Amino acid sequence: MEFKSVGVVGAGVMGAGVAQSLAQTGHHVVLVDISDDVLAKAKKEVRNGLRAFSLFNKKETIDHKASMERISYTTDYERLADVDFVVENVTEKWPIKQEVYGRIDTICRPDVVFAVNTSAISITKVGGITKRAPQVVGMHFMNPVPMKPMVEVIRGFHTAPETIDTAKRFLAEINKQCVVVEDMPGFVSNRVLMLTINEAAFLVQDKVAAPADVDRIFKTCFEHRMGPLETADLIGLDTILYSIEVLYESYNDSKYRPCPLLKKMVDAGLHGRKSGRGFFSYE
């Protein structure tokens, strides 16, 4: 195993999922967040996630106790000084990303690769605020991370070929495949997906169809496993809105204008599954 200890920054839904995937494949994880409450919630999510993974993957045996013990939960960024690789998962807001990379760039060893788990923010821009731009790569995990076999890897302008190779070896160690794409806002997956979700929200706002009917068309006509609005609830409506806002600002194209209904729902605290209510209710 090349990456014995991995730093995971940000303990939200994606961070907890990445930490679980690492721990259940034998890696030691330093999971960092600024909030003890978020870390406590992440610990619970990892425990539940391990149970769910075993339930849906009968052929793969996982030692739950050992996996839980491989994750250290901390608010102390200095604990990242000895890790071999970093996956950053903080919220999709540039000022927060900027602050985080300023901190970890000074703490982590110079040889450590930073993987930016983002759905829309430029990898080139992130690399530009570090002293290791050739070692910064995009790594767009899908939710729920332990259940998804594919990761979108993004090559920034300065990302070195060796870093792409390192990213591939890292993903192979946690049993993930990858597709490497170039760095443009939204990459491939979210440049298409966010437009679809945003337009589905407009359909609801314009009273063309109820959320369940919008999703039913996609599931029954196109054989999608989930409709766009159910997918939005799974990802988190706040994350969806931030991503669309990044696309809108990046391309200056009105086709990415955020749906007012989506903004209103986020303002009201309807963030999807994680808050118990979004386009559908989970309470």
TrEMBL record:
Entry-linked Gene3D superfamilies: N-(1-d-carboxylethyl)-l-norvaline Dehydrogenase, domain 2, NAD(P)-binding Rossmann-like Domain
PANTHER family: 3-HYDROXYACYL-COA DEHYDROGENASE FAMILY PROTEIN (PTHR48075), 3-HYDROXYBUTYRYL-COA DEHYDROGENASE (PTHR48075:SF5)
The name this protein goes by in its record: 3-hydroxyacyl-CoA dehydrogenase NAD-binding domain-containing protein
SUPFAM superfamilies tied to this protein: 6-phosphogluconate dehydrogenase C-terminal domain-like, NAD(P)-binding Rossmann-fold domains
InterPro entries on file: 3-OHacyl-CoA_DH, 3-OHacyl-CoA_DH_NAD-bd, 3HC_DH_C, 6-PGluconate_DH-like_C_sf, 6PGD_dom2, NAD(P)-bd_dom_sf
Domain 3-hydroxyacyl-CoA dehydrogenase C-terminal: 186-282
The keyword Cell membrane belongs to this UniProt entry's keyword annotation: no
Boundaries of every 3-hydroxyacyl-CoA dehydrogenase NAD binding domain copy: 6-183
Keyword field: Oxidoreductase
Superkingdom field: Bacteria
